[in-house]
Amino acid sequence: MSMFHTIAAGIVIVGLALTAVAALIRIVRGPTILDRMVASDVLLTTLMLGVGSHMALTGRTENIPVMVSIAATAVLATIVVARYVRRRAVTASSVASPSNETKHTGNTGRGSGAENA
Amino acid sequence: MLETMLDALSLVCLIAAAGFSVAAGIGLLRFPDVLSRLHAATKPQIFGLLLVIAAISLHERSWLTLATLLPVFVFQALTSPVAAHMVGRAAYRTGQLDDESLVIDELAPAVERSDRLG
Q: B49, B61, B86: which to substitute to probe chain A, counting the most A Cβ within 10 Å?
């Protein structure tokens, strides 16, 4: 049992570390700000999983408020950034030159849709 | 005997949560555009969180712990789809997705129709 406990702890630590590194690589490489926000969301959830795994492995429960506060506030940054991206896209499509519009034919419908929204 | 079994079950839940988390990380690295990365990132992490909460509850075996951990899952399950919706909407509106990776685009006719009407 104690052996299994140690092995399980090792697997959990390695797995969560791999996920955090993958999220960090995606944050650095981008390419768009939305990719970075998705990756930072994953990083935050991985932090929550780490705090929870620590509680389950050691039997200490004093970190529950940390988990609750992270879970309650994690969504704010993503929503703010998503709205900012939308606003900037509206500005870009309203000042876009005609040659730009014909080049991105597939995107004009979306651009004008964003203006209406 | 029962306690050993519950402890072992808690460890199995933890290992499964770590596995789902790794799946999310790999998907985040290898998928081609925002929407598929969003798909890979959000779903396994929520299930992993549920598994971790189950592991804590199985290890502690107290109703008070479960009652204080339940808000964590409720908050995350309520707010994570909102964030994913906002990111997906922003990605679609600003054209930051790979048109070739879409099998069917059901939103484009709706956007076109709303443009015609107003």
A: B86
Which pLDDT does position B113 carry in this prediction?
Answer: 82
**Run of H or E including B105:** none
Q: Which residues of A46-68 are buried (b: 16+ CB within 10 A; e: fewer)?
A: bbbbbbbbbbbbeeebeebeebb
What are the structure tokens assigned to B86, written together? 């906002």
Distance CA B78, CA B99 (A): 30
Helix, strand, coil in percent for chain A, rounding step 5: 90, 0, 10
Token pair of A53 as six digits: 């795994």
Tell me: ipTM over 0.90.
no
> Which burial class, exposed, middle or buried, applies to B101 when counting CB atoms under 10 A from its CB (0-12, 13-18, 19+)?
exposed
Q: For residue B112, with 0-12 CB atoms within 10 Å meaning exposed, 13-18 middle and 19 or more buried, which class applies? A: middle
Report chain B (118 residues): mean pLDDT per 10 consecutive residues.
Answer: 85 91 89 83 85 89 87 87 85 74 77 78
B3: contact with A, CB 8 A cutoff:
no
Domain ranges for chain B, please list them.
2-117
Give the Cα separation of A44 and A32 in Å (integer).
19
Q: In this complex, do B69 and A67 lie within 8 Å of one another by their Cβ atoms?
A: yes
Q: Determine contact, residues B24/A19, Cβ cutoff 8 Å.
A: yes
